[in-house]
TrEMBL record:
Domain Dilute: 1-116
GO molecular function, one term: GTPase binding
Coiled-coil region(s): none
Protein name according to UniProt: MYO5A protein
Organism whose genome encodes this protein: Pandion haliaetus (Osprey)
Length: 116
């Protein structure tokens, strides 16, 4: 049963990550309910949570600062389950929700690409 749950979570993670990468209007996800479900069913050691890691990292990437070289370094070390192309796609799709935020600068994205 653990293998079935792991495969199911892999598919959920893959589909959700693809939606996050391909649809600008879906750049926000909360996977805590999936993690809570795994905990409730005593399946945290099934390997299913690890299949969600790219999705978790993409959601974290949307929340961190994206301005300085230090921010770029932190992103590079934090996003080890994402490919360079996925990171760049998330950064390019990032749309600020209010006037206090700014789009990610192209120069910052280039810095990320160089470091990865």
């Amino acid at each position: 049963i653990k293998q079935v749950v792991k495969q199911m979570f892999y598919i959920i993670g893959a589909v959700t990550l693809n939606n996050l990468l391909l649809r600008k209007d879906m750049c926000s996800y909360n996977v805590s309910q999936l993690e809570e479900w795994l905990r409730d069913k005593n399946l945290m050691n099934s390997g299913a949570k690890e299949t969600l890691e790219p999705l978790i990292q993409a959601a974290q990437l949307l929340q961190v600062k994206k301005k300085t070289d230090e921010d770029a370094e932190a992103i590079c070390s934090m996003c080890n389950a994402l490919t360079t192309a996925q990171i760049v796609k998330v950064l390019n799709l990032y749309t600020p929700v209010n006037e206090f935020e700014e789009r990610v600068l192209v120069s910052f994205i280039r810095t990320i690409q160089v470091w990865l």
